[in-house]
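Annotators were shown the component list below and the corresponding predicted structure, then asked to write short factual statements about the assembly.
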Amino acid sequence: MSRTATSAGDARTSVPGVPPRDRPRRRHTGRKLLPYVLLLPALVAELAIHVIPMLVGAWMSLLHLTQFFIRNWTAAPYGGLSNYRVAFDLNGPVGKELVHSFLVTVAVTALVVSCAWLFGITAAVLLERPFRGRSFLRTFFLIPYALPIFTAVITWRFMFQRDTGMVNAVLSDKLHLTHGHPFWLIGDNGFVALVVIGIWRMWPFAFLTLMAGLQSIPTDLHEAAAIDGAGFLRRLRSVTLPLLRPVNRVLLLVLFLWTFNDFNTAYILFDLPPASADVISIHIYNASFITWNFGLGSAMSVLLLLLLLVVTLAYLGTGRLRRRYA
Amino acid sequence: MRESRTLRWVRGIILTLLAIFTALPLYVMVSSSVKPLQDVQGTFTWLPEHVTIRPFIDMWHTVPLGRYFVNSLIVSLSATVCSVAIAILTGYAVSRYRFPGRGSFMTVVLSTQMFPGILFLLPLFLIFVNIDRYTGVQLYGSRLGLIITYLTFALPFSIWLIAGYFDTIPRELDEAARVDGAGPMRTLFRVLLPVAAPGIVAVAIYAFMTAWGEVLFASVLTDESTRTLAVGLRGYANQAQVYWNQVMAASLVISLPVVVGFLALQRFLVHGLTAGAVKS
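Structure shown to annotators:
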């Protein structure tokens, strides 16, 4: 902290961002160091909780780290890439389940992200112009996003109960859409439950971001288009959506990462998720903590990270290319 | 620009459907929390036939909800205070100084957001267990370990938001303070912080929400005595007989403070998001 104190006294005449000219050397280094001192706590925290554990995780994935070595993990035998070989062996049970879980996650993510975006853009566009009840709806739609996820999901769990839940009471007893009372949290319907909850959770965030994005579009563009005779849909297609492209780019990426990595929904919704809803993060979690095979769990986590990295970089890269050749 | 009649109708129908979708779980939560037990064990009814506040009293005894509440409060508040303090310092450096490594620092910090939690959960668990073994500092199964973990979760977005708020404050204010003889730290605390106060409150709410709702790490890093609400609430649902009315009552009580805080400050959060969207 003494470094900060000296620089605080010395920087009297300096303006940040402007390079100092004739100034004694000591002052110069003090002022230069200040931003790094300010970054230090954040840097230490990020290193300790994110970066170092990640590196340790990468190392763990090379070990035969089973329950016998949890308290003494340095003694675990080195296994090279054998954990990866097990995870990739499509004929073995581990590899088969991993691929299945991956496909389930892709399906859930595709449905949730597209529906959440569609709901979000619809609501944001419809709420753009003033009418009665607009500000109430704007706030009301954000509630699912504000609700702690575990209380929201446990409420859905109650709603999806077979005999006492609201969903069967409506679909089966009122609308007669289903035969008898289906199970929602066991078997293939678990997938449906997971997607519905995912959309319910995610679309308010899409709505919030798109609403903010719409506000940054100048209104005279819309007016000019309207004077030229463009109708509502035409303006949407030719003015709103193109100008939202930068917002959409970030939004879709964030929605994708959140949904793909989501652990909470499946964890709270099911005691043990059925195969139809066995998304990747809970699959790795259960594979690690039920069998206590941390080496294999880490290998699968590393594969997941690599996949996300490749997808993210490819996604950001195509955007850059498109802009260059546009 | 007059709106056509069809457009108004379509808007009305779509927004009503979305509102119903949003409201259903909220309605189920509130209405079931005032039903007696036999009413939530039979077929679902829309209106409670008998209204009772028993669930709100009984819920404290079925599982040690009071203890979970205290744990969650301590962990979330500490993590919030720490992460906001750190984010203020970092945001100040990022907003007001141009230094080598600034860009890569922000990239690294923001990219930790995309890591799947499961990836560092296993190693963090092992590291905590081994720190306990070698130094005796108990991080596994303690509130401290959870606080340290949570404070980093809200950090990236908090830094981003706070730096964004600082960017909107004109630099003439800093310069005026410098002319009056204030150093960088004094400028930060006496000039920038008061101006950015609403934004910082919004960031604090965000950090609190993040910690209050975290499930994955809490499920592994806590034991029975340090369990938080996020894991504790699941304890109801896993019992042989589920007291759904109590679960809904507890959910309501847990959600209310966060939702109210968020809605009261959503203006500032939306503002921060817009600033970010324009910047990128």
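Statements collected:
1. The mean pLDDT of chain A is 82.
2. Residues 92-292 of chain A form a domain with the MetI-like fold fold (CATH 1.10.3720.10).
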